[in-house]
Amino acid sequence: MLKVLSVGSEIYPLVKTGGLADVMGALPGALAPEGVAMRALVPGYPAVMAALAGAETVLSIADLFGGPALVVAGEPDGLPIFALDAPHLFARPGNPYLASNGADWPDNAQRFAALCRAGVLIAQGAIAGFVPDVVHAHDWQAGLLPAYLHYAGGGGPPCVMTVHNLAYQGQFPADLLGALGLPASAYAVDGVEYYGSIGFLKAGLQFADAITTVSPRYAVEIATPEGGMGLDGLIRARAGVMHGILNGLDTIAWNPARDPLLVAPFGPGDLSPRATNKSALQARMGLDARPDALLFGVVSRLAGQKGIDLIIEALPLLTALGAQLAVLGSGEPALEAGLRAAMARWPGSVAAVIGFEERLSHLIQGGADAILVPSRFEPCGLTQLAAQHYGAIPVVSLVGGLVDTVIDANPAALGAGVATGIQFGPVTTNGLADGLRRTAALFADQPRWQQMQTNAMTLDVSWTHPAKHYATLYHALVLE
Question: What is an annotated GO biological process for this record, any one (predicted)?
């Protein structure tokens, strides 16, 4: 059994701000059938430590960036994890990265360097019962791990670095170099230096033995000046170790046939219960009870990246088409205000819940006719995977993993009976408007629409194939 240590800053269901948590939580179970025993190392936030109450201490660290720390091991809900119990760094309420005023914690560099340091100790065999064959670091928070191993003189296991979102890079002042335990020689173009600062993600990309992104299309996009966000040169230089591996969907947590959060569970053999969920969604959101209206759903961070401003700008057309919109999410204040204003302008047709409710997110997927995902860039995206699995037709922009996961309803795909959604481009208000018109035309042809729903629901969006790709990569690294 190959042993892999997965290191990241959040893990579902214990702590989550985005798709990283879903991947961290899903991979151990998905990899077990492939002969891979994965254990995750995560910070000991309050929610994590509460889930590990009474867990076994497997490692003590006398001083870790200003205080003692422990590594504890447990399996809450069957999820094998190590938690870095360092109260001086992680015993803080709320968001893992932000203080109550919305600003980054001022010691985030030390907090996540500590996570990497603990990962190095485990990688080097500090826990006798778990000596990993491979280390898998996720996003900037784990980016220093490959660098620490490199500057320790090598000898550790090979490292995989996964980029979940290149927009978040972890940049910190150069004068922290010594405080982070990095040698002076590390501050170089071929080290951790990045535009006059220390780049955590840059360090991971520089020193990892293999790099992965969460979709093949995104792997191509980040190697371009337009999508590389300043790192495209390094990414092109390391093209030989780059792999685009699609994310999967947790089809146990997201199973419309057995979902307790739906009013009426259903499967691809009988879509009629979706009408009950649609009615419940309209009632929950304060939308007019119109069974025949085309109901668009959105479950998203309210951010420019996600194209929420395009949705707001397209609302005159959407409502003129006789459609409705149900939004769940929170984020940029201007977008939240824009949605509130839209609710006032189009009562009964536009509704938004600012915040997040797990039950409502499932009801939107199980009750909306279509899900809007007009992202300006999207490394992979999970919303469109859940939408297809729940028979909500995804309407997506032509970027990243959205291209890789949705089969566009173009004439050829419709003729072959394989379409699962609608793609549009460019990512502008006019581009989205074309997507909305196409969606309305297809919705008016219910036999064809229901065929698309069935296609989408029977598409394999699980972790089965991605897990095989990861297992193959791990084994190849061990054999090198």
Answer: glycogen biosynthetic process
Q: Over the stretch 250-263, which tens digit does the pLDDT of each residue have?
A: 999 899 999 999 99
- Which amino acids are annotated as binding site, given as ranges? 16
Write out the binding residues for ADP-alpha-D-glucose.
16
Q: Which CATH number fits domain 2-248+464-479: 3.40.50.300, 3.30.420.10, 3.40.220.10, 3.40.50.2000?
A: 3.40.50.2000
Three-state DSSP string of the chain: CEEEEEECCCECCCECCCHHHHHHHHHHHHHHHHCEEEEEEEECCHHHHHHCCCCEEEEEECCCCCCCEEEEEECHHHCCEEEEECHHHHCCCCCCCECCCCCECCCHHHHHHHHHHHHHHHHCCCCCCCCCCEEEEECHHHCHHHHHHHHCCCCCCCEEEEECCCCCCCEEEHHHCCCCCCCHHHCCCCCCEECCEEEHHHHHHHHCCEEEECCHHHHHHCCCCCCCCCCHHHHHHCHHHEEECCCCCCCCCCCCCCCCCCCCCCECCECCCHHHHHHHHHHHHCCCCCCCCCEEEEECCECHHHCHHHHHHCHHHHHHCCCEEEEEECECHHHHHHHHHHHHHCCCCEEEEECCCHHHHHHHHHHCCEEEECCCCCCCCCHHHHHHHCCCEEEEECCHHHHHHCCECCHHHHHHCCCCEEEECCCCHHHHHHHHHHHHHHHCCHHHHHHHHHHHHHCCCCCHHHHHHHHHHHHHHHHC
pLDDT tier, 154 (very low <50, low <70, confident <90, very high otherwise): low
**CATH number of the 274-458 domain:** 3.40.50.2000
The predicted-structure confidence for 397-415, as pLDDT tens digits, reads as follows 999 999 999 999 999 999 9
pTM score over 0.90: yes
